[in-house]
Amino acid sequence: MKLTLSYAGFLVVAGALLLAAGWLFIDRAPHVGLILVPHYRLAVMREFAPTAAIALAFLLVFGLVGGWILAGRMLAPLTRITDATRIAASGSLAHRIRLPGSRDEFRELADAFDTMLARLEAHVAEQQRFAANASHELRTPLAITQTLLEVARNDQYRDTSELVDRLYAVNTRAIDLTEALLVLSRADQRSFAREHVDLSLIAEEATETLLPLAEKRGVTIETSGDMTPTTGSPALLLQLSTNLVHNAIVHNLRQQGSVWVTTSGHAKGVELTVENTGEKLTPQLVSTLGEPFQRGSNRIRTDHAGVGLGLAIVKSITQAHHGALTLTPRATGGLCVTVQLPGLPWKDGYRSDV
Question: Please, what CATH class does the domain formed by 195-351 belong to?
């Protein structure tokens, strides 16, 4: 209605100005002799005034009708966007506008809104899936604990040493899962201070920490690389490196397995690559390993297999540091994981701009 009145008002004002200009031209033109006579001037004014009124009335009606049609056509895309917003506000994120027509401002706005809805729908689905999986994973150790306690209560003469050991193992797993969820939440929220760090030193520290586990499982670890300066949380980057090396050790060949940890720097940033031998993995399976609680059905399961959040935490920490995570199956078996992070210039072990 506002646009219609604006169109009609503008058209009427423009018509009135045009009629006024015409009257002034006729009234003041010296070459029209009859107009200069007062008697004829009054007659012309009487004839001109009704015609001008009719013209203005026609312009008003035409402006209202035409303005209503034009405003409706122009506001139709906004009406579709508004309807989609109401549907989204009600909780349904599957609706899309899909505005047809040429790529103008309304089309760009509708496409941007559709993109936002698609991302929100994917994010909500991921959060729901994560909550369901986390609940399932937390429920398992609690259910086992309850079962063990019920057995102990019903059989008071049972040896409690075995029960205590099993309860300790189950409780340790629940603690590990809770700590992993806290790390994942911290990385997702990006609530950490950034420092200048050398990713190669962090990867070396993670490798040295896990050497006993590798020796126990008969896995050899080879490290190589150059200085890789970047910025981020040392604790989270250490968690990232530890998860990658631990994952490479656990999901490996039972004997004579190998792990290669390599760091490198280039113009676009720094890279940490962790490769390991193992069973052959399909690209479809590898594409799901970054999701929470996805261990891979074909991968080796042991008591060190973790809680299924290792690569999910790596992915979250990488994204929090504005990096990229790439998972690639090796042709001969095993997995190759590459983490790319933004780099910094270093000189003699220090930043060149310091």
Answer: alpha beta
